[in-house]
Amino acid sequence: MSDDPFLASLRAWAQDTPAVVALVLCGSSAALARRDRWSDHDFLVVTVDGAAEAFRRDLSWLPDATRIGLWFQDTAHGLKALYDDGLLVELAVFDRSEFADCALGDYAVVVDADGVQEQAAAIHARSARSSPVDPDLELGTFLTSVYIGTGRARRGERISAGLHLRAWAVGHLLRLASDLVPEDHRGPLDVLDPARRVEQVDPAFADDLDRALAHPVDDVGPLLLDVADRLCARHWPAYPAHQIAFVRGLLTTH
Question: What is the CATH architecture assignment of 5-129?
């Protein structure tokens, strides 16, 4: 962390601010080897009870705050700030009592004045278990999203079709993929976002999906069925292939 001036300044501020209990780096801010020019900075600030809202209302405490061109609060605890050099900062500020309700993927506790490290480890473990994947449910929801989206495209509702196919259907397919990949290959995946680093975990699936999504929306549905069929055939020996075939048949005949 010492090589990153933003994080070094942030850590010094946290250590010198009495109301701050902990600073928890997240994502590539915690795993600096993964950073590149497109990486943002993600972190959580934990304060004494009653102090968090003041830090959420005024971001002048951030390093080089005068260079922030845009900032806003997007959740009860979370904010985004965009700097004039293109650095995006995604942060959340929690009271000590609120911290237990957060979720953590990759993280590093770099300031800890109140035993946050142990609690963060428990939160990380809970976050990994909090969204168990039901393969049959994910496949079924994926298939119905493909069917609906393709129908919308053929009706001329291309924007709605795009949401169903490129967002909702793909989201369920990614959750299915994250569950089907063998456990000893899942390391790079983000426990909070199954779309992150798929290319490192299953390059064949990632390339297959990317090629399908590059087509016009009218063609995406059937291509997604092909992607799902190949994914399941590789990783899910007993997958219900007849369901994919059923939806493919409907798209062909209707």
Answer: 2-Layer Sandwich (3.30)
Span 160-210, pLDDT tens digits:
999 999 999 999 998 898 887 766 555 555 655 665 677 777 788 889 899
Tokens, residue 57: 């209302």
Ranges of each domain in the chain: 5-129, 135-253
Domain 135-253 belongs to what topology?
Four Helix Bundle (Hemerythrin (Met), subunit A) (1.20.120)
Half-sphere exposure at residue 87, Cβ-oriented, CA atoms within 13 angstroms: 18
